[in-house]
Amino acid sequence: MSNEIKPPKLADRIFLWYCKSASIEDIHGDVEELFYEDVKRHNLFKAKLNYWRRVVSLIFSYAIVKRKRNAAYHHFSYSQFNPAMFKNYFKTAIRNLSKTKFFTTINVFGLAVGMSLSLLFVAMVVFVYQFDNFHPNGERIYRVITHVQDRNENPSFASAPIGTAQLLNNNFSGVEKVVRIHGSLNHHVGYGENKIPIKGYFADADYLSIFNFPLLQGNSVTALAKPNTMVITEAAATKIFGSKNPIGELAFIEPFGEVMITGVAKNIPKNSHMKFEALVSFSTLTSHYGASFTDDEKKWNNFFNSYTYLLLAPNASPTPIEDFLNRIAKEKYKTDEFRATFELQRLDKIVPGPELSNNIGHGWSYESMVLNGLLPFIILLAACTNYVSLAISQALKRMKEIGVRKVMGGHKRQIFMQFVLESTIIMLLALSLSYFFFELIRDEALAISGETDLVDLDPTLGTYAGFIAFAVLVGFVSGIVPALHFAKITPITALKGKELQTKKGSRFSIRRFVITMQFILSLGFIMAVVIMVQQYRYSVNYDLGFDQENMLNVELQKADAQLVKNEFEKLSFVQTVSMSSHALGAGEAPGLYVRQTEKSDSIEASKMSVDENFIANMGLTLLHGRNFSNDSTQNVRFIIINEVFAKKLSPDDVYGALGQPIILPDKREVRVAGIVKDFHYSNLTSPIGNFFFEYKPGDFVYANLQLESTHISQTFSEMEAAWKVVGEGDKFKAQFLTDQIRDAYGFYFMIVKIWGFLGLLAIVVACLGLLGTVVFAIKNRVKEVSIRKVMGASSESLVYMLSKDFIILMVIASIITVPTVYFFMNWLLLTAQYYNVPIGAVEIIISLSIMLLLGMTTILSQTLKAANTNPVDNLRVE
Amino acid sequence: MKEYLGEFEELVLLTVASLTTNAYGVSIKNFMEQRLKRDISIGSLHSTITRLEEKGYLTSSLGEPTQERGGRRKRFYQVTKSGKSALQEIKDLRDQLWVTAKPALSSSK
């Protein structure tokens, strides 16, 4: 036999694995000795077979059981929950952290900064996972969702045909209650003279008994039983009726007429996916539209507003109901173009849940949560890599300790545990600091995301538990790399302290990589912010083709346009007054489709309603034709168009557009009276398109006042006095056009704020990491530097020598980042804003110098210190 | 309380005693197999040894590393004082029983 004669490997392995740390050396020797005897006496096969047999008999024998049990209590051996060792790790960790205060501070601060955003995210996740957890029957409540296969996109909807509810309502066994919900409720409720915006939907009477939305007043069983009845929340009640008792009051809802308030519900908590301000009885719909509203077969194909919620009987399974619905679906949907299947979705699976169209309220899908978590994760990753690289770079100091531990019988797993524990402690320290950051940025973050009404990030017990779990998890994960690194070390090399020299090259490159990545990240954010600020400034100062200085837009509200005009023209500092339906240049002009003749293709255009003074008031140039006249009855029949539109109407001769007929969407035929020079009626995100002015006093929203004075504070009080005469009790609301235009670019500000903050975090994390690495590198070279100095090296050359490595990293980061960000931002700007300023060298230089300044300060602060110390201090020790 | 000594345990104990300084797993097994003329599973042998150790009738010590066992050491067993007295006791009991049973045994011949 060519092979060496040896016991079967697999049996050996199984045996050793099974025995774990128990000492079975003698028994193992016995079986091997017996094996060789067998080989001599019988053949190899028989010997192997016997070996297997013996191993199996040993595994089941009392001898091994006993030895394993002994091993578990042996004082040199590892046990998972050994409180004494745990205490020791804790003590070592604390001592080590307080011994290296500098690195601990850097780590804790960096991690706290990096964590702050993640805490926001954790708080959000905790909030989202508490959605709709206050319904006592929650685990029995299901909603019917629809998966549509239409050969293209196969969307899934949160809504379902009314028919599903109708069919299930006929006492399908296992279904206790069915609630139909319809989202077609008008968004305004009329009361007296006022129209109040209200969000809500139609629902069956059982709605209030299935869901836990308690009524403060009214009977929850009967409140929604009759047609034209409505339940509103406390907040809505105050909004509509003020302090009056709302019960029995009548409100007006188009087109159903008067609706009586039969109940007042407690305000809906933020963590519900079906928030409402008003519920109108479903029978309102059926009594107004007749039975066809629910029974029409077309409703099986058109169900964008209807929802079906079920309360199953206790212990009932949703599967038979699903099967039943899908049998129906097969009957109803026979064409290949539109097929659908239904699924029952339990209440707790709705938010967070899969992405669905047509949600009844605001919720979070898994996808949106992952997207939200991405940026915090990147920042946290940067902070954690810092920790890892710093922890590994300190390996030399810990070498002896680890060596001694190993010689004394420390297992790999114990060393691993120790370092993981250490990183968890650091993470918990960072968490407590990070919590302050979290409190600082919480409200601002909500305000930026515009979700103040939808998200509640006030920390609860659950949030704190989430934070701690998060910190422990991050601690464990980021501890793995250094812990594995340390656990691998063999005691001999550890005690000899050779580790650093032998592996210096490879480890150093990991650290370099980390630093470079962090600077790429920081520089990327800085550049993006600088470019965005530049865009914003460019947009606001852009020549829009009309006067915006000293133009005050006064909201007309309920006031009569003519009266307002008369009143304000009396004021000495008001030069001219015009009327308009929108603020020019703020991106407000609405789009619509017009036709040249009844049969021609429609043309996309934007429009504004203005009066005859507007063009002159705004400093627009009328190129050809005439302005609106004083005769308002005549004006209605004309429009004034811009050059682009004129070219569209008559491509060869722009002036040929004059007098051409245009059919507006409301079927009115008007004629082109004049052509104005192109100007930016909308904002700069889209190119100048077809545009026209029409004369429609009913649409006027603003009075445009051209002011003379620069003493704004004084003029305002006079204007307020003038407003009192005509304002019908409303408050005086006015804004300068420049401010309105500025606001239109508010999204830049939002982006600058978010990215700026991310950039700040990234640069702080990167600089801290750099600082730690530089300090460490210098500490390792203290002797070298001192000797060089003694030998006559100048401070400058030493600074250069020490800084060189790191400066190279920053240069590499710049070389990678600048073109990447340049191309990305160019693409982004091209898609986001039509009239943009090309990214120039200035932006790149500014962002580079910000990064280099911070990075160089970090590096030089340490290298200078090292180069200028007295060499004697460092050499005298030996 | 006196520990009960089983038949197999007694045999193992006696084997260890007769092997004097060379009593370890394999030698005990071979010695017993020769005399008993049957196979002994190594698992049950070691289990019995472990039980005897627990009862305090055997002690053990590790020997020097050996070449033929993959460098693994042998564990040598020795009968303790209480082991010896337990053996003695069971022999005395048997002897007494033999004495009382002798007339009947010989008469049936």
Describe the fold and architecture.
The complex is a heterodimer of chains A (878) and B (109). Chain A has 29 helices and 24 strands. Chain A has 878 residues and is α+β, with helices and mostly antiparallel strands. Chain A has 4 domains: 9-73, no CATH class; 138-363, no CATH class; 368-535 and 748-875, no CATH class; 551-741, no CATH class. In chain A, strand 1 (141-149) and strand 2 (156-157) form a beta hairpin. Chain A is globular, with a radius of gyration of 38 Å. Chain A starts with 8 loop residues before the first helix and ends with a helix. Residues 501-505 of chain A have low confidence and may be disordered. Chain B has 109 residues and is α+β, with helices and mostly antiparallel strands. Chain B has a single domain (7-107), classed as Winged helix-like DNA-binding domain superfamily/Winged helix DNA-binding domain (Arc Repressor Mutant, subunit A, Orthogonal Bundle), CATH 1.10.10. Chain B has 4 helices and 2 strands, in the order H-H-H-E-E-H. Chain B has helices at 7-18, 25-36, 42-55, 81-107; strands at residues 58-65, 73-79. In chain B, strands 1-2 form a two-stranded antiparallel ribbon. In chain B, helix 1 packs across helix 3 (42-55). Chain B starts with 6 loop residues before the first helix and ends with a helix. The interface between A and B is medium-sized, with 25 and 23 residues. Chain B: Pfam families: PadR. Chain B: It comes from Chryseosolibacter indicus. Chain B: This is PadR family transcriptional regulator. Chain B: Residues 15-89 form the Transcription regulator PadR N-terminal domain.
